[in-house]
Every structure is written in structure tokens, then in C-alpha cells.
Design goal:
- The complex is a heterodimer of chains A (161) and B (330).
- With 161 residues, chain A is mainly alpha-helical.
- Chain A contains seven helices and one strand; from the N terminus they run H-H-E-H-H-H-H-H.
- Chain A is 61% helix and 2% strand.
- Chain B contains 13 helices and one strand.
- Chain B starts with a helix and ends in a 20-residue tail after the last helix.
- The relative contact order of chain B is 0.08.
- Classes of the chains: A mainly alpha (161), B mainly alpha (330).
- The interface between A and B is medium-sized, with 26 and 32 residues.
Chain lengths: 161, 330
Amino acid sequence: MSNEFSMQNIRQQMLIENAKQEIIACNSISERYGLALSEAEIKELMECRITALKNTGRVEFGNGILPKLIYSFCDSPYMEQDNYSHILAELQDAFYNFKNDSEEQFSDDEIIEYMVNIFNGKAQGSVEYLTQLSIDSLYRYGSESVNPFHTANFEEAGDLF
Amino acid sequence: MSTCDNSTNNLTSVFQFTEEEYQHYLTKLWDLLTWQAKRKIGIDSSSMPSEQADNLLESILYTLSIVCEEDNLSPQKMLEADFHELIRRGWAILDCKRRELYERWNTLCQNAPNIPNVYYVTTLKNIQQFFQSYDLYYQAHEIPCSIDYPILSPISEEIKGISYIEEYVMRVGIENEFIHCFPLENVLRLLNIATEDYLEDYMNLCDFILTNAIGRTLLNNSIDITDTLDNMNTWDNTAALDNTFSLVLSKPDIQKLSLFFSKRNREEILESLLSALETLCRHLCYPEENIPYFSEALTSLSIRIETANNTECLGNVFHYSAFQSPCKLQ
């Protein structure tokens, strides 16, 4: 049987076609913040998604994590139209890496929440800072940003407790 | 090629789809896999590791193959069917198989010969773990237990999931039934002679008994080195079989067997073994339908006999005791 019809190729075709429409729909939200993705950028992000999934050894069912990333990050003060597509690609890569590192212990929403908190907080818009974090640090800094009184180690909290 | 692709190709190679049918089949399979994956990972995640997805696909393919086998589905019927309904049908079949197999395993344990070989006993106990851990929904192809005891005719590694355990239980049952044809004290006596420690050794119990019983049958029928296959087929199976249950041979018995085999090539040796087995089973009232199970073992035995005989080491194949008196010929 021809390799053209292998499971991998069917999977890729479906990933691209189905997700594209949803991402186009995301523009209607991100445009309020002056951000939008062109068709070419969407196509590139789709290909980055396939590469990222391959590199991290993951399979995605449904339209992918990109729409959630767009909705979560589009209101970030550090997002600009110039770097929008590039940062989304980096965030997408980072997400799949964190997902692997977490050994499925964190849900998608939790990881994205931590990423947003750090990107807008400690990282000050630096994707490089964010992507270099370990999963433990992502959890620690990401959840601290949610609750400044939260700490994984109560001994570090000092007199507060 | 990933495990995923290999599995789809294994199933479809049986059905010989056209390329269009194959694409249609893959699309439906992907849809089913997506549905199953979402059931497994829930709403919290949109992705899973590839290994987990491949595992899930293996489970789906195994389940679908069970349905096709059980319901005798043609390729067309399978392609036209709703795969979600097929998988549910598969789960029902697997659940039924699990319950039936549990009963058969229980019976097997109750009727096992009282030979406390550690691998034999442990493996039979370990199969209980299979019933506790078998996940027919997401890992139907897995065998979640340790099967250590070697059977006479190994099962192909292509057989997966509950099908493997079904086959294993059946084959152990066949071997047990054969062992039960002989008095336990004779069996234990043979095992004591044939092995260093039959309680701890990694070995198949039936192998020794089958080999020596066939040797005994050949001897009991007053074998002569001039015996042709035609003559063997006319042996009177009611006569001269008093010593059938005496499994331990003597050194003169080995010498007689050696002379018998020395004039025969491998094919003729195999034919004589098969003939002796049929004679033996008739005498023991052992079910005829089980005889083909031993044919693979006899093929291997014929090779061992030929090799051992050429190096005058037949005593390493048929086990004997220096204190055993020779078979008295009728």
C-alpha cells in the first residue's frame, strides 16, 4: 500500500484542514487588541504545530492548542503585531514541551495559565525566559503569580505563616 | 514505519482494500481513535504522547479484528459499518470471552497435575492477574500478566490480548490431560531422573513424559530394525502395551531405540514418532483431536533424535535409569 495513505499523512491532512478555520475565527477576538494572523502566517503556524508535535512525540486530536493560546495571550501587553506570529509559534513549542515534562499531570488550561502568568509577569514578555523554565519552575512561578501568598515550601514564606 | 502504521497495514493486508477503500478506512479509523482518545484523556487535554496514541490504536485494531473474526465480517461489511458500533460490539465480545476464560482457567487450576514446578505453579497463579488487570476498552491487545512457564508448542507473538491467554490455557489443558494419563508416581520418577531439580528448573513438564512415553510405545511394540512403516501401522495396539505407564527406560531400551533410529532418516523417524503417538493415544483413550498439537513437538524431537543418535547420545533425549530393568518384549 502506498505510503501516501499512511496513518501519519491522514493525520497531518486532518490537522491542517480542520484547525485552520478555527484559527481564522480567533482573529475576530485578537483584532480588538490589534493582532491578527494572515493566511500565510496561519499556514506557517500549522506547519510549526506539526513539527512541534513530531519533535515532542505527541499526537493531537481536535484543532490543537493554538486557539487557546491565542485567546489567552492576545491581551498581553507584550504582544505586538510585529512579533505576534513568531511568539505564538514559540509558545506553541513551549506548551508541548511543558506538557511532556509534566507527564500529563497538568491539564492544558493549567499549563497555559502558568505560561500567561509568567510571560506577563516574571518573563516580561520574554519567550526565551519562559521556554527555558523547568516544569517545576513553571508551576512554582506560574501559580505564585495567581496567588502571591502561595508557596510550595511554607518554610520559605517566613513570618507570614 | 511507526507501530501505528504497521498495525493498520497488518489488518488491511488481510482485507486487500483498494487505495480508495483504504483511505476511507483510515478516515473512519482516525475518527474512532479521536473519539477513544477523548474518552481516555477527558476534557483536560487536547493531546497525548504518541506511544499512548499508538497503544490506543493497537487496542482498537485488535478489538475490530475480534469483531470481524467473531461475526465473520467481509471487508465491505466492515467498511460500511459504523465503527463506533463495531467497537462496542468488540467490547461486548471481549467481556464475554473474559468471563468464559475465567471459568476455563479455574477448571485448569483445579485439574492441574500435582507437580509443584515453580514456573508452572506461578504462571497459573499469575493468570489471575490478567483477569484483574485486563483493560478491554483501552488496552485490549495487552497481556497484563507474566507468562513464564514454557509450553510444548509456543504461541505466535502475533497473537495478542485475551486471544493469547485463551490459546495458552487451551494448550496447557491439552498437556495436562496428557500428563494425567500416567500415574503421578511414574511421572515424578521420570522427572527426578530427567532433571536436576524438576521443582525449580525452567522446563516444560509434558516434554519429558511425551518423549519417554513414545519411546516406551516403540519398545512395547517389539520394534525391529527391519520394521517398515507399513508394519508399524499394523501393530496390534492391544497387545504388549502393559508397560505403557512405565515411563522410565533402561539402558538396553536406549540401545534398542538407537538401533531402530539408526536405519532411518529424519522423515522416517518423524513418521515413526507420529505413528507411535497415535498408537499411544488410542491405548490411553486420549482425545484424538488433541494429537495435532504434539506434531510440532515431534518434529523437533525427530531432529534431536537424529542428531543425538549420530553422536551416540540418545540417552540425552530419552531418559533412562541405570537401575531400570529392560522392557520385556511380548
